[in-house]
């Protein structure tokens, strides 16, 4: 019988797989039904069993049966395609297929000639090869390692084990030597990742950022933090998992995660290291702040739900009546219990939360005062200035001048 926690874990892995598929622009599948998945893979991605036997379900089943668990393997196929596979417990992760190189002039012809494939297949092969994304091997490995971590497992090798398929067979021990760092470096990376996730789980932003700073200083071959976009996405997933460990409600985690996913998409594959570092620090700090606030509360479930609704929707009008209807209580009951437990009315708490969020944005972003006012729910910038001055004793511009990072 499947438990609630098992169902939630499956949903979490499914969501993470979806994020990684978007980042890599290629299929990412986690499954326990290995046979059916490999049959579907052959049907969708094998050009022709006669000329691409390494992508048939029969060949792949044999490879999965013999491969060592928790080792990330990349299969390199003679037609220039590749895929990543790793298994743990009763699960199999499959990333791809993808290719490492663009289709330069002459590449298709050379491959056909080398493999002795009739030239009649050339047009079909060109169309097939150009269907798939170009993915760097290291990016595929980091994605697999991140998903393993999220599933509560680990990447035992700390690097990618590349396997070349020859003559339609794939041998797990065959191919190039594993691309890995020393075991000392790998152990240090895992220790720092644990430190980071432990810090987020208790809401300690200072310790979490310190762990990230040490991770960023590790050798280029082992630190994903040096890879724009993908590195930040991996950290967002790790922070989500750690925040859930810390007791933060899934709805709150998802709202924070979605906000930063959208902002990361707007930033794109930035090569500005300072911009990436600032974004990551703000994201981690935000997760930690919510975890810390949630862990320190002695509020009832109803009041926690109200504060979560307010904090997550600061840009919208907050009505006690609407909140009460949404939470299934009367407006008078909600107002009374909220004031009793927090010492503030719903309106006063909302104003305070908006002022705190605005202060953080003034200190950590270059957004204009008007933009920040709109973001935290004030259409009138002059009224926003008045509210902010009442909360912090100075205007937003003066606060930015005194606290900008």
Description of the structure:
The protein has helices at 4-24, 34-45, 57-66, 107-115, 122-129, 137-150, 183-202, 205-216, 230-245, 250-267, 273-296, 301-312, 320-327, 331-342, 346-364, 369-375, 381-392, 396-403, and strands at residues 28-31, 73-76, 81-88, 91-99, 161-164. It is of the alpha+beta class and 405 residues long. β3 and β4 (91-99) form a beta hairpin. α6 (137-150) runs parallel beside α9 (230-245) and α13 (320-327) packs across α14 (331-342). The N and C termini lie far apart (52 Å). Mean pLDDT is 81; it is low at 172-181.
Q: What is the distance, rounded to the nearest whole angstrom, between the alpha carbons of the first and last residues?
A: 52 Å
Count of discrete alpha- or pi-helical segments spanning 4 or more residues: 18
Mean pLDDT level = 81
Uncertain residue segments = 172-181
H/E series, N to C?
HEHHEEEHHHEHHHHHHHHHHHH
- The general outline is elongated
Which strand order does the major sheet show? 1-4-3-2-5
User: Share of helix among residues?
Assistant: 55-70%
Give me the secondary-structure category. Answer: alpha+beta
Q: What is the tally of beta strands?
A: 5
Q: Major sheet: size, sense and barrel closure? A: 5 strands, mixed
Radius of gyration: 25 Å
Q: Please indicate the percent range of residues in DSSP E strands (runs of 2 or more).
A: 5-15%
């Amino acid at each position: 019988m499947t438990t609630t926690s098992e169902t939630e874990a499956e949903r979490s892995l499914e969501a993470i797989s979806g994020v990684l598929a978007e980042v890599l622009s290629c299929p990412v599948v986690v499954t326990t039904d290995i046979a059916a998945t490999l049959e579907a893979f052959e049907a969708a991605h094998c050009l022709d069993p006669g000329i691409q036997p390494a992508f048939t379900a029969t060949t792949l089943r044999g490879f999965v049966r013999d491969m060592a668990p928790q080792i990330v393997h990349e299969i390199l196929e003679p037609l220039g395609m590749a895929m990543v596979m790793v298994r743990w417990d009763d699960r199999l992760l499959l990333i791809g297929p993808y290719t490492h190189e663009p289709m330069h002039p002459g590449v298709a012809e050379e491959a056909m000639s080398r493999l002795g494939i009739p030239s009649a297949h050339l047009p079909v092969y060109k169309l097939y090869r150009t269907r798939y994304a170009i993915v760097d091997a290291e990016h595929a490995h980091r994605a697999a390692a991140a998903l393993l971590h999220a599933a509560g497992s680990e990447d035992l090798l700390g690097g990618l084990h590349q396997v070349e398929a020859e003559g339609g067979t794939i041998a797990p021990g065959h191919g190039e030597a594993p691309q890995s760092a020393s075991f000392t470096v790998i152990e240090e990376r895992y220790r720092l990742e644990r430190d980071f996730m432990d810090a987020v789980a208790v809401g300690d932003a200072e310790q979490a950022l310190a762990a990230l700073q040490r991770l960023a200083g590790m050798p280029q071959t082992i630190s994903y933090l040096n890879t724009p976009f993908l590195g930040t996405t991996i950290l967002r997933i790790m922070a989500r998992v750690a925040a859930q460990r810390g007791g933060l409600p899934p709805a709150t985690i998802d709202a924070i995660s979605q906000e930063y996913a959208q902002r990361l998409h707007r930033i794109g594959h930035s090569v500005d290291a300072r911009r990436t570092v600032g974004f990551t620090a703000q994201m981690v700090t935000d997760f930690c702040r919510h975890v810390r606030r949630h862990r320190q509360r002695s509020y009832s479930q109803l009041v926690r739900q109200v504060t979560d609704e307010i904090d997550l929707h600061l840009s919208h009008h907050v009505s006690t009546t609407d909140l009460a209807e949404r939470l299934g209580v009367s407006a008078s009951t909600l107002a009374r219990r909220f004031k009793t437990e927090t010492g503030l009315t719903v309106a006063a708490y909302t104003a305070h939360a908006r002022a705190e969020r605005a202060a953080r944005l003034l200190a950590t972003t270059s957004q204009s005062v008007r933009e920040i006012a709109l973001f935290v729910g004030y259409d009138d910038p002059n009224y926003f200035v008045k509210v902010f001055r009442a909360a912090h004793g100075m205007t937003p511009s003066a606060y930015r001048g005194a606290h900008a990072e």
